[in-house]
Amino acid sequence: MKKSFLILGLFIAILGTINSCKKVTPTAMEIDKSKTATITGYVHAHLSLVTWQNDNVWENAPAGTKMFISVANNQYVNGAEGYSIYETTVGSDGKYSFNVPADINGVDVEVSLVDFEYNQEQAQWDPVESEWVLDGTERKIYTVSSWNPNLTVGSVKIKDFYYSAN
Questions:
Q1: Residue 33 and residue 84: Cα distance in Å, rounded?
Q2: 18 vs 54: CA distance, rounded Å
Q3: What pLDDT, on the 0 to 100 scale, is given for residue 77?
Q4: Rounded-to-integer distance, Cα 160 and Cα 39, Å
Q5: CATH assignment at residue 111
Q6: In terms of residue numbers, what domain contains 44?
Q7: Are the C-beta atoms of residues 122 and 138 closer than 8 Å to each other?
Q8: What pLDDT was estimated at residue 92?
Q9: In sequence order, what are the beta bridge partners of 116?
Q10: What is the pLDDT of residue 66?
Q11: 22 partner at 20 to 30 Å CA-CA among 36, 79, 120, 147?
């Protein structure tokens, strides 16, 4: 009888041990966000051909224009999958800024800007005024190429973007 209780007790102990062994799934990827690099600059576009023709200047891109930085997670953590995406918007002064996690070996990033549409002011030469004057507006789609810098801890990259109207 004692032998039966001993075997039953041993069986329960083994069964309890088996049930408590659960598959442990890895925790979420941890990125050290305390070490960063900065990307900053201005975003420009020809929103008015009158201003461009008369003053030869670029206007600021519209406030709120979205910008993104994409970084492959495996640059932060070996074997990690997917991408970390960081977002900012252009201010009313045309300025933008990102603080992005980086490391001493550097991380390759892609900076991209969202296309936007705008009713661009058209210009016509006025011989009486001897200057370019407003001649209505025309819907334009503004695009700009992405940029792929390498960022190391503490670095500051300055990049101005210039949209093209199509």
A1: 12
A2: 81
A3: 87
A4: 10
A5: 2.60.40.1120
A6: 32-165
A7: yes
A8: 97
A9: 142
A10: 97
A11: 79
Residue 3 lies in a domain: no
CB-CB contact of 162 with 65 (8 Å)? no
**Spatial CB neighbours of 132, under 8 Å, sequence gap ≥ 6:** 49, 50, 53, 54, 123, 124, 125, 126
Provide the residue type at 74 as one letter: N
Domain total in the chain: 1
8 within a domain of the structure (yes/no): no
Residue tagged 């334009």 (tokens): 140
DSSP string, 105-155: T-EEEEEEE--EEEEEEEEEEETTTTEEEEEEEEEEEEE---B--EEBTT-
20 in any annotated domain: no
Q: Is the pTM of this model over 0.85?
A: no
Look at strands 83-89 and 66-72 and give their pairing: antiparallel
Task: Decide if 7 is inside a domain.
Answer: no
Name the pairing type of β-strands 36-45 and 161-162.
parallel
Taking the chain (166 residues) in consecutive chunks of 10 residues, what is each chunk's mean pLDDT?
Answer: 45 39 42 90 96 89 97 90 94 96 94 97 93 94 98 97 96
* Amino acid identity at 100: V
* The two three-digit tokens of residue 128, written as one number: 């009486």
